[in-house]
Amino acid sequence: MESHSIEQPLILLVDDDVRTVRLLARLLEDDGFRVELATDGALAMARLARTPLPDILVTDFRMPHADGVAVARFARSLRPDLPLFVLTGYPELVARLGRGFAPAAMVHTKPVDYGALSAELRCSVEEVFSGAARAQPHLSSSSPPLA
Fold it and tell me: Which pTM does this prediction carry?
């Protein structure tokens, strides 16, 4: 596994709404994350098949070619402890389809509360990399105020 600096965890951000995904990517980059974008489930799976694997997956639920749960399952088949965040207007459906994820996926209802998402992303980075920090250091960053 490649070592990333703690200030720059890599997020794979997946959403078929190009305007939304670009805005969210800008906010996350301002928050100290490196962000790669995929605009549908198939592109996300293709990206996950390459290294380095992202540190966190943030995905929309309803998308062309593969939904967010399929993307999350594929990601977890590659890295079982990968932090998963699903952004959706259908939280009940995601909760039902996403049963069995361990650790559980974090579900955020659209429109997304960016402050809450950012805080949970930082906590996930700290939790996942606190154990990995013994072998290879990772850092977290502070969140900018909500715009």
Answer: 0.81
